[in-house]
Amino acid sequence: MQYRRLGASGLQLSALSFGAWVTFGNRIGRGEARELLACAYDHGINFFDNAEGYADGEAERVMGDALADLRLPRDAWCVSSKVFFGAAKGPRPTQKGLSRKHVRDACHDALRRLRVDYLDLYFCHRPDPDTPIEETVWAMDTLIRQGKVLYWGTSEWPAAAIREAHKVARAHHLHPPTMEQPQYNLLHRERVELEYAPLYAEYGMGTTIWSPLASGLLTGKYNEGMPPDARLGEERYGWLRRWVIGDAQERRLERARRFTELAAELGVAPAPLAIAWCLRNPHVSTVLLGATRVEQLQQNLEALALVDRFEEAVWRRIEAATA
User: Fold this and answer.
1) Is 54 an active-site residue?
2) List 3, 41, 54, 184, catalytic entry
3) pLDDT tens digit string along 204-260?
4) Which of 22, 34, 86, 161 has its CA at a distance of 20 to 30 angstroms from the CA of residue 297?
């Protein structure tokens, strides 16, 4: 495993990490989660990602139980949560958003579900138009000073809002956001590479990127249609299917097919190749993996060996194929 600093902080995260989105609490129970987390840890992964909104909080309960079962030394791994969407079905106004009240309550609930004394990373899962950024920055700073959170950050925030958070923190001597968690893959590059470009040097921001495989599109799984066991084929994930496949103008499926054809030509599996491409970006602190089977996770871990395997010309061909 390789380890990278989380932006300008001193925290060393594994270059590949493991997340619970749309798997834990939905498709994966405690036993399967324990096997996946054990495999990840045995291969050097030290960051496990979660959120209050994943399976309405059940993802955190499953992960917390599995980590407790494994009895891993707490100082050897990091865990995160995210606040915004709420963990309750049909949340009431104070059960969602980024108000001081919900940020505090959600943190305490995440600690309880994950069965830990503190969160290593705590993300504002989306910007909240109904809460002043200043209020959220103060709330996060309070949690850090209380020892309940070590580093706080944002997820899918516009660069302007991140700048405002830093401005507030600097003016009041508060802890600023350390990291951002954006989507990043061969089909979705603009925000990480363009919009956030000035933030890396100016504020030392790190990124914990998600969806390196574009929710499975870059694996070739959907090249010939919708497999019967596919997550995107489930009725409850209709919103995800529309988002992943995109509209006709984006030609996402066509671009994914070109990528998988090139991977076959290179003699490698498309999934680890797509992940390796993400790892080549020096502003990526860690790439979040998702898996429902140990074999799937083990294949994704092969990405580490592919980063330096190909010449620059090959990576340019990969980018041209998915442009």
Assistant:
1) yes
2) 54
3) 999 999 999 999 999 999 887 776 666 666 777 676 777 777 777 688 999 999 999
4) 86
Work out how many domains the chain is built from and give that number.
1
Q: 252 or 14: which carries more pLDDT confidence? A: 14
pTM: 0.95
CATH of the domain at 259: 3.20.20.100
Q: Domain containing 92: what range? A: 3-321
Residue pointed to by tokens 């932006």: 7
